[in-house]
Amino acid sequence: MTASSAAAAPRALALPDVSAASTALFLTATVLLAALAYYFLGYDQGAVSLFGDDTHIHEFVHDGRHFLGFPCH
Ligand SMILES: [Zn+2]
Fold first, then answer.
1. What confidence tens digit (pLDDT) does each residue in 3-12 have?
2. What's the 62 CA to ligand 1 centre distance in angstroms?
3. In this structure, what are the phi and psi dihedrals at residue 53, rounded to the nearest 5 degrees?
4. Which of 36, 45, 35, 47 is nearest to 65 (CA)?
5. Each residue of 18-38: pLDDT tens digit?
6. Domain boundaries in the chain?
7. Cα R_g (the chain), whole angstroms
8. Which of 20, 27, 49, 70 qualifies as a cystine partner to 65, CB 3.0-4.6 A?
């Protein structure tokens, strides 16, 4: 292919088929998952945990909690 033929041929850009509904669904799912992760990482303590006084989730995310600066102990 020469330089003149490359400049003459229009090149199509491959774009994904994204509709507004699928974008809204993807963004909603992302926000819900992020809020759930934020809750478990930052606010799920043993005494006020979703699962009662069980501290398994707290201990599981404990290092991440300290790394991100959430108050802990
Ligand atoms: Zn801690």
1. 555 567 888 8
2. 6
3. -90, 20
4. 45
5. 898 999 999 999 999 999 988
6. 19-68
7. 24
8. 70
